[in-house]
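The protein record now logged underneath.
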Amino acid sequence: MADVQAAEHTYEFNVTMSCGGCSGAIERVLKKLEGVKSYEVSLEKQTATVVAEDSLAYETVLKTIAKTGKKVTAGKADGEERSVEVPAE
């Protein structure tokens, strides 16, 4: 029997954030990003966790967070370590 539920990804990023404005900036860009099902940004833990539709690539989310000017220090896609080097446009 085919799985009816669409595939999704969980992306986890360690992000250097110094204040509520920093985490707020990341929340604002994630809220607008197409394909994001849910997200949680924690200033306390210095993390951003994104649950995304299958069509939304890890690199797209990484680029979106990096555009806020915050430094992404580590990243995971579905539990696997991934590069945090932002791809060139």
Observations:
- The chain has a mean pLDDT of 92.
- DSSP finds two helices and five strands in the chain.
